[in-house]
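Sample log: TsaA-like domain-containing protein.
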Amino acid sequence: MQLQYWRHRVHAVAPESFAYRPIGHFRTPHKAIAGMPIQPIGALGVSGSIVLLPGFAQGLQDLDGFSHVIVLYHLHQVRGHSLMVTPFLDTQAHGIFATRSPSRPNPIGLSVLRLAGVSGCCVHVENVDVLDNTPVLDIKPYVPDFDRWDADRIGWFAGKSGQAVQHRSDTRFADAPLAEEDLPVA
């Protein structure tokens, strides 16, 4: 049950579910989860594309004026989620919301990718760290004045985030156990 905070009172609210439809799919050289980059910094120079469904092509107008895009996508190969995970860059368990682990309650991925061009229904991108055929939920322009912040602390990533350049994925999150709230009721 979710809690809604309003005027210093806590109200119980029934959980909602949302349905999103993909606007397109990634085409990338990453055919398997094992061995693929875990962040775009580890995929420098890797090219791919986002092929939009034809009905969304008009929405690409003016996108080619940007050097980078933020892409939101559905992590379609992740099953279940865990609230405590041992992420790729550490040997200790952390709360899921303090990690970039794909084993999330809502399996939504986010990557900031270099925009190489737009042609028809196709968005050409670089530094791709996404599995081939991944459903794309949204594309937004990256605007440094809006999207870049100087971080004064990065939690447990301190001293480890630079390892993302060479670290590769394994299958630890492909078959994550179902969380208790996802189990069928007997």
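Observation: The longest helix spans residues 144-147.
Observation: The mean pLDDT is 82.
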